[in-house]
Every structure is written in structure tokens, then in C-alpha cells.
Design goal:
It is a single chain. The chain is of the alpha/beta class. It contains 13 helices and 14 strands. Strand 1, helix 1 (14-27) and strand 2 (30-37) form a beta-alpha-beta unit. 40% of the residues lie in helices and 19% in strands. The chain folds into two domains: 5-70 and 92-168, Rossmann fold (3-Layer(aba) Sandwich); 179-295 and 335-356, Argininosuccinate synthetase, chain A, domain 2. The longest helix has 19 residues, at 297-315.
């Protein structure tokens, strides 16, 4: 199959920059760059000009922050998904959105193929390509890192190739960390982080203040929710993008949101990553607390079970699947009572829940009190325990025979 035009998922970093001339040379085709603005901020400056200078026929920079927040981060938040009890899925959740618009641009521009800069060792290659298969399976996939003709195996190789092709890059061999940033988080890999025993260097962190140097006075963040959706911060209403951005700054100032994790990659190896998710850390904890106030026991526990599966779905790149859509329907339904406020105390790297209230609260002071009450007959517990423990009693009786 002759490739005439390729749409490359483009970040402007070293790897995707050198892929533009490499693809042109090896496939003798036109390269269209697609960059998604999902909250990288300064990383997007001058991206169009850089792509064209590097050899791209066109470069599209699409502002997808609102869709990212509404269509991806909000369902993720509602699900309560946390991968392996620590990772809030900041990189994973962004890939299907980028792939979706990469496909859209490819179809609009009459492209024959899609390309990405993911290595053959990582999860992102799976996330991108599962999305491609779900949305445009007829398009060919070009993954240079997995191809025989790709001889670039180190940062030094990449910088040498960039100099040969006169590609403008800001990276150097001294930049030892690989980072990925968006509205929800920033990830860090490489350097001393490849040793799971080594403490991260202080220069790793970008969004969060060192908890030891954070203010000595705590800050309070009151999050307002409507049916599980964050709608206000400290009494002021904001759209979801603005709320996350403001909370990122507030929580980051107090060192909240750092995670150091050795995780199990989908491709079979373990990797060590360091993540900063200030707003996400606060929002996930706050919504969990509100849910604990307004959901009945069975709904609360079943949501927790499904959250584990949801985390696997997102981490493994299975976003465009019927199961994910069905789980979203459940989460939206079960969180309808989740309207209220949660007060969080931010102090020295910790986000602590210190208050929660809702008009749909199932908490009854009359039932829960250790004092005298008129609504609960404590003697009723005798029969309950007898029936609840009956299988144990029967089994114990058999042992004596």
C-alpha cells in the first residue's frame, strides 16, 4: 500500500519532532502534525511554526481542554478509578481523546495512515492503536520505534539526527526526565527514577511545592458537587476546566498530589513513575467522601468494585468499548444523589477531609449516637447476630461430630 499522507500525533518534543523528517524520508509521503491542547500550557508555544520548519505540510493545534475535562476527566472522576491504589491515570485518560482527533483530521485530510511516537516498551502504543482500531481500522499505523529502519536508540542519537536535519530542539543530553503534562497531571520518568530505591531529586517536581517548604498554615478548599460533578470552589462557581486549574494551583502550593509508584505496565514489565496530580487528588478524595454520605451500603461497595475494572479499562486503552460506556451509565446513575459540599484541609502535602454535607445525606445522628435514642432498639441486634452467624454455628457443630 502506497502511503501518500500521514497524520502524526505531535507534541513538539524531541521524538515527535525528528519523526516528521524520518517518516517523510522512509515513506516518501506528506506528514500532517496534530497537536492537542489538553492543558500543557507553555509547551504549546510556537508549535505550528516549529512543525512547519521541521518539515510538516500542515500542523493543527486543537484546543481540547473543555472536551478533555467534560468527556474524559469527569467520567474518570465519577468512576473513582485509581490504578493499583495510587495512579490517578493522568496520562492514560488523555490518549483516547488525542487519538480521536488524530483520526478526525486524518479522515478530513484524506490521509492513508496514522503515526505516533510511542516506544515498543510502553502502554501508550496500545492506547493509541486500540483507539485507531475502534475509530478507523482501515488506516495504516506507523510506529517508528518498532520499525527496522529506526536506528535512533538514545537521546544522543536523537539529538544528532536533529542536528543533521536542522531541526530546532530545546532538549539536551542534560535533560534526563521524560515528562507528560496535561490539565490533570504531569508524569516524570527517567534518570534516577529508574532505580526504585532512589529518592526523586528535588528538581523532578514542577506542579507541587516541597511539603517541607509548604506554608505552615493550612488552606481549606470547599468543593461543591452536583450529581457527582464539581461545580464550585470555596463558594464560587466555575466551569470544570477553570475549577481544575485553580485547584491545581491551590493544592500544589501546599505540596498536595505527589505519587511515587512502581506500576505493572500492560506490556508485562514493571516501571517506576512519579506523578503530580494536585487537583485530582483533592477531587477524588472529596467525591469519595460525599458518596460515602449519600449512597447506601450496597451501592457504595459495588461502585468500589467497578472502580477497579474502570481503572484497568482506562490504563489498558479500552476507552472506546461498550463496557466503558455501560460503566459510565452506572456511575452517572448511582451518583445522582451526590449533590453537596466537602471541605478539604490542605497542609504539608496532605489533603484531609474535614467536613461533608448534603441534602441527600443518609447519615442519621439519632441512629449513630452513643447516647440515648428512641429510634433503635439495641436488643434487636441479638436476633440479627444469631441469624447472621448461623452458618458458623452449624459448621462448628459438624466439627464436633
Amino acid at each position: 500500500m502506497k502511503i501518500r499522507r500521514v497524520v502524526l500525533a505531535y507534541s513538539g518534543g524531541l521524538d515527535t519532532s525528528i519523526m516528521i523528517p524520518w517518516i517523510k524520508e522512509n515513506y516518501n509521503c506528506e506528514v500532517v502534525a496534530l497537536a492537542a491542547d489538553i492543558g500543557q500550557e507553555e509547551e504549546l508555544h510556537g508549535l505550528k511554526a516549529k512543525a512547519r520548519q521541521t518539515g510538516a505540510a500542515k500542523c493543527f493545534v486543537l484546543d481540547l481542554k473543555k472536551e478533555f475535562a467534560e468527556g474524559y476527566l469527569l467520567p474518570l472522576l465519577k468512576s473513582g478509578a485509581i490504578y493499583e491504589n495510587k495512579y490517578l491515570l493522568g496520562t492514560s485518560i488523555a490518549r483516547p481523546l488525542i487519538a480521536k482527533y488524530q483520526v478526525a483530521v486524518a479522515l478530513q485530510q484524506g490521509a492513508d495512515a496514522l503515526a505516533h511516537g510511542c516506544t515498543g516498551k510502553g502502554n501508550d502504543q496500545v492506547r493509541f492503536e486500540l483507539a485507531y482500531q475502534a475509530l478507523a481500522p482501515r488506516l495504516k499505523v506507523i510506529a517508528p520505534w518498532r520499525e527496522a529502519g529506526w536506528t535512533i536508540q538514545s537521546r544522543e542519537d536523537a539529538l544528532r539526527y536533529a542536528r543533521q536535519k536542522r531541526i530546532p530542539v530545546t532538549q539536551s543530553v542534560k535533560k534526563i526526565y521524560s515528562r507528560d503534562r496535561n490539565l490533570w497531571h504531569i508524569s516524570h520518568e527517567g534518570g534516577e527514577l529508574e532505580d526504585p530505591w532512589q529518592e526523586p531529586d528535588k528538581r523532578v517536581w514542577m506542579l507541587t511545592k516541597d511539603p517541607e517548604l509548604a506554608p505552615d498554615k493550612p488552606a481549606y478548599a470547599t468543593i461543591g458537587f452536583h450529581e457527582g460533578r464539581p461545580i464550585s470552589l470555596n463558594g464560587s462557581k466555575f466551569d470544570l476546566v477553570s475549577l481544575i486549574q485553580r485547584l491545581n494551583k491551590l493544592a500544589g502550593q501546599h505540596g498536595v498530589g505527589r505519587t511515587d509508584l512502581v506500576e505493572n505496565r500492560l506490556v508485562g514489565m514493571k516501571s517506576r513513575g512519579v506523578y503530580e496530580t494536585p487537583a485530582g487528588t483533592v477531587l477524588v478524595a472529596a467525591l469519595h467522601e460525599l458518596a460515602s454520605l449519600v449512597l447506601d451500603r450496597e451501592s457504595m461497595h459495588y461502585r468500589a468494585q467497578l472502580a477497579l475494572k474502570y481503572a484497568e479499562i482506562v490504563y489498558n486503552g479500552q476507552w472506546f468499548t461498550p463496557l466503558r460506556e455501560a460503566l459510565d451509565a452506572f456511575m452517572n446513575s448511582v451518583l445522582k444523589p451526590a449533590t453537596g459540599e466537602v471541605r478539604m484541609k490542605l497542609f504539608k502535602g496532605q489533603a484531609q477531609v474535614v467536613g461533608r454535607r448534603s441534602q441527600n445525606s443518609l447519615f442519621s445522628k439519632e441512629l449513630a449516637t452513643f447516647g440515648r435514642d428512641e429510634v433503635y432498639q439495641q436488643s434487636d441486634a441479638t436476633g440479627f447476630i444469631a441469624l447472621y452467624g448461623l452458618p458458623l454455628k452449624v459448621r462448628a457443630g459438624l466439627k464436633k461430630l
